[in-house]
Specification:
393 residues, alpha/beta, 3-stranded antiparallel beta sheet, 18 helices, 46% helix
């Protein structure tokens, strides 16, 4: 096993893989005590070689790895890679592309929704992974050989998983389906939180413009503080504390001290002063800034229509071997049932062929569902109004 802890060895590894068709990549990181993930290890493998890069090694220059990640001729393979991609976006300022996420590919190839890596490895290779070291403190040095073996196994076993899924996608002519999902995963905006929009993550039910203005200001302040101090946002103030303070709008330290989880000392200290200053300068949210509520057409029995669509979705999922959530989520089903047709992914690209067109036909009465003794069947109506059971695809 090669553990890279110096810049020269890393540069040599990069040079050896400059023409690699793909790279298998994983990371080990900690996040419990920080806002940003603390990168500890990078596991990376090409078609023949697999190494561990000790990201905490003194003097190691990780910029040597940047050319490989930026190379558009090399496919970067991850499993459930969103957090890994966030790390690389923070480190290098870009999302490594082109991407291939084996969890997404597995959803397209009939392995179910959000299948775990060890489950996928078992189903494709028949091998079981040792997961004992899953909760390791990856920042502690030295790491044991068992810990390193565990970390490296993620990319060693990712290789046959990737190759098998890529082969299956090509045979089924579904590579473009995964590419569409990868396009969304590659958006840089996915990995950057704008402090001004941080309030949108908080589940606030009130639409009072003064309350929401204060909540937006407090959430933006907390996000900036968390980013600057590299602390988890909830450690500064929990969401429920933000909402209580925004709702009560304490005008002084004495009233602020009555907020849940607040001591008089905290209210009178620097934290309290900053919160009071934020509140004093908060402006009511304008009507244009209010969260938009979808004005959906009134449809009789929309809930029942949604239930029928969910049955149809399950049938489409089983027939095509694609995870239901990848085809359509609950919000899209509800919007379809309520009569919406604009800006729905399920009515475009491959999703329309697999499910969207049938969903519209069901809602318009051109398609029906019926139960037989052992299954649910799809019925189609012809031009003369006669119904017949559809043949399975």
């Amino acid at each position: 096993m090669l553990v890279i802890s110096d810049s020269e060895t890393l540069a040599a590894f990069v040079a050896r893989h400059a023409d690699a068709p793909y790279l298998l990549i994983d990371t080990e990181f900690l996040r419990e005590q920080t806002y940003y993930p603390k990168l500890c290890l990078i596991q990376i493998a090409g078609p023949q070689e697999a190494v561990i890069v000790d990201a905490l090694a003194e003097g190691l220059d990780l910029s040597h790895l940047e050319p490989l990640l930026a190379d558009q001729g090399i496919i970067k393979v991850f499993h459930a890679g969103r957090q890994d991609l966030e790390i690389f976006h923070k480190l290098y300022g870009f999302v490594p592309t082109p991407l291939f996420d084996t969890q997404v590919a597995a959803m397209v190839c009939g392995f179910g929704e959000q299948v775990a890596f060890d489950t996928l490895v078992k189903r494709i290779t028949g091998k079981s992974l040792d997961k004992v070291s899953r909760f390791t403190d990856w920042a502690r040095r030295p790491l044991s050989s068992r810990q390193l073996d565990y970390a490296l196994a993620d990319v060693v076993h990712l290789r046959p998983v990737y190759l098998e899924l890529a082969k299956s996608l090509a045979e089924r002519k579904r590579a473009a389906w995964v590419e569409e999902e990868m396009g969304a995963l590659a958006q840089p905006s996915l990995y950057v939180v704008d402090p001004q929009s941080a309030w949108e993550r908080i589940k606030a039910r009130s639409r009072d413009t003064r309350f929401l203005g204060r909540l937006q200001a407090l959430a933006a302040w907390r996000e900036r503080e968390a980013q600057e101090r590299d602390l988890p946002r909830q450690r500064l103030l929990r969401d429920e504390q933000l909402q209580e303070i925004a709702a009560n709008n304490p005008g002084n330290a004495e009233k602020l001290a009555h907020a849940r989880g607040f001591s008089r000392q905290a209210a009178e200290g620097k934290l309290g002063q900053r919160i009071l200053a934020v509140l004093a300068n908060a402006e009511p949210m304008s009507t244009e800034q209010l969260p938009r509520r979808q004005e959906r057409p009134t449809v009789v029995n929309a809930g029942s229509r949604g239930d029928l669509l969910r049955v149809l979705l399950r049938l489409a999922s089983e027939a095509h071997g694609v995870a239901p959530r990848l085809i359509a989520n609950g919000n899209e089903i509800d919007r379809l049932a309520a009569g919406e047709r604009d800006d729905l992914r399920v009515l475009s690209t491959w999703r329309a062929e697999v499910f969207g067109q049938d969903a519209i036909a069901l809602l318009e009465g051109r398609l029906a569902l019926a139960c037989s003794a052992d299954s649910v069947q799809i019925l189609e109506r012809d031009d003369q109004g006669a119904w017949a059971v559809r043949n399975a695809p």
